[in-house]
Structures are given as structure tokens and as C-alpha cells.
Amino acid sequence: MHIALLAGEASGDQLGAELIKALRKRNPCIRFDGVGGEKMQAQGFNSLIPMEEFSVMGISEVLWRLPKLLRYRNQLIEQYQSSLPNAFIGIDSPDFNLRLAGRLREIGIYTAQYVSPSVWAWRENRIETIKRSCDLMLTLFEFEKQFYDKHQMPAVYCGHPLVDLIPAELNPAKAKARLQHEPGRPYLAVLPGSRQSEVRKMLPVFIQTARYLQKKLPNLVLQVPVVNQEIRALATKLFAQQGSGLTFELIDGDAKQVMLACDSVLLASGTATLEAMLLQKPMVVAYKVSRVTATIAKRLVNVTHFSLPNLLADHPVVPEFIQDAINPHEMAHELYQQITDASHRNALVARLVQIRRKVRGHAAENAAKAVYQDMMRKELMG
Q1: Which of 46, 99, 133, 229 is the most buried (most CB within 10 A)?
Q2: What 3-state DSSP class applies to 104?
Q3: In whole angstroms, what separates CA 31 from the centre of its chain?
Q4: pLDDT at 174
Q5: Which domains does the chain have, with CATH numbers?
Q6: Are 347 and 302 a contacting pair, CB within 8 Å?
């Protein structure tokens, strides 16, 4: 059996690796190829194109990479027209994956999408494209399945793999010792994103926020996990240009341990906000895209929150700052409260613990079961 997968960024690579392991439990003879990163490749996955080529975000950011992305899409279509895999599973990266899935489904290949696009939040009219492109949608959250049920699109609520990777019982002291934290000194985890485009936009904002915070906490230490050497080089450059006087450490990988050890987290919106929630860490979330992307999105977005903890709670729990509302001074104030006010911090953590109960575990196993059974059922039906 041959299953093609495409993950376009670090979080998708992690999801893909767990999915490969779960599918192999059902059928050890499955051969996997497509696009994936180091974690998927460690599971025996054959990546035909470097995953980093797909790591772009936002409308204007995609436009200048469009010719290359189209060439890659055509390359994959030709590849799979020839090899005819039993299934194609897109992992996140919906703008690329759904178009590719649609073309592959036209030639009779079973297609599924693991991680729903935010169709419930903006561009709801995409549901018709999704229904044409996919046999099955595998969602991470229950509210997403409810949206697809409303639109008569086959979907399975799988849960999120991070629930299994991050235990409910945590050991911050062990993480602090591992990262050699000095007792009594404040530490702030800073996660500006996993893509270079995100880091260029968000890290300068976070550096400015840290400068304000340092005025109130002079012995503040920033710990910044970096996903690869390119991000490390970019972060080093930005700190050199804008972070004079700040005490910071760049740490290869280990984002979960860094967040667990630190007193609070300053991060870009995305999967990392769910990690921080599961780690029961106070946080401030911000996000910024290009002016073109923001202008278009403003007309199409129909949700009042954008970070996962607030979406799951369906009301504000963690502070959010987006686009023109980004205010480093206010962000620093929120972080100062989280770090120094125990009652404020404890109340926030208690709410995060409640939200965790809304997310199902065993996601990879649930996704593998759903897609494998649905694929085999449709093959038997012809």
C-alpha cells in the first residue's frame, strides 16, 4: 500500500510523524512519500521536495513564491498520476493541499485533509471547494466537526496529538533545572513563529515588548527556542540590531521545555498557543501579517478571537493582540502581571486547565482509524 502525505511546516511535520506511526500499526507494509520534515523522515518517510519550500504564510507572502509553488504542485501531480497512491493526506497547509487534493481526487485517488482550514473563521464559501477536494476531513477540535456536520461534509473529530505528548501532571522544576534557571530570576519564553516570514514580523515586536518589560524587571532573561539554523541566524541578527541590553538565550528546539520552565510566554498565534495552554503557562499572544493580507482578512473574518485557548473557551481567557491592535507597552504590562501577581497568574492557569478538558487525546490513532477504514470501505465499494 502507498500513501502520499504533504506537510508544509514544523507543526505539520510533528502531526505527520505521529500519523505515520499510527497507520503502520494498522498496516506495517504501507509506503509513505510526499513532502515532510525531519520527524516524518525519521519514520521512514521519503520527502520528494524540501518541506521548507512550503513554509509561507499570508496572501502577499504567498504571491511572490507562487510560481515555484505551482511548479511543485505540477511535479507532485505528475508523480502521483504515474504512481497512483492508494490515498493522499494533506496535513495542514490547506491552500496548497486542497488544490492538490482536488486534482488527485479527479483521477480517482482517495483524499483526506488532516487539520481543518479555518473555514469556520473566514472565507466560509471555501466549504464547497473542500467538499469537491476531500473524501474526509480530520479535525483537531470538536467545534470544527460541528461546522462540517452543518454543511454535510464527512468529518471526524480526532483530537490533538499534543494532548498525549503533554501530560496533565507537569514538572516545571525539572525543566528549570535542565535549562539552568537561576532561582528568583524572571524568565520569559519568546516564540515568534516557525517560519522566517513570521519571525521577521513578530520578533521585532517581541523585542520591543521585552525592552518595556525589562524596565520593570531589570534581571529579566528571554529564552527563545529556534526550530532550525536559518531561524537561529535570523533571530541572532534581529537581536543584534534591536535587542541591545536584553539578556537572551537562543535554544535549539526544546520549545515545550522552555515554555514549561519559564514564568510566562510571549508568542505568535498558532499551535504553540495550544502547547502553552496544555503546559498551563500564562501567555500573551500576538500576530501580524502584511498590510495586504490584513486588509482582505478584515472583510472576511467572522470570529472575535484568534488564539486557540480563546477559541476553545469561546471567550477571552488569554490576552490577544493582532495587527494594528499590537501594543508592546500593553503587552509588557500583561506579562508583568502574569509574572509578578500570583493570584492573577493562578486564576489564569485554572482557566487553562478547564479548557484542556475540551480537547480529546489519542488523535493520531483516531485519525489513522478513520482514514484507513474510510479508504478501505470506498475501495471495496469500487
Answers
A1: 133
A2: helix
A3: 26
A4: 96
A5: 2-161+361-381 (3.40.50.2000), 165-356 (3.40.50.2000)
A6: no
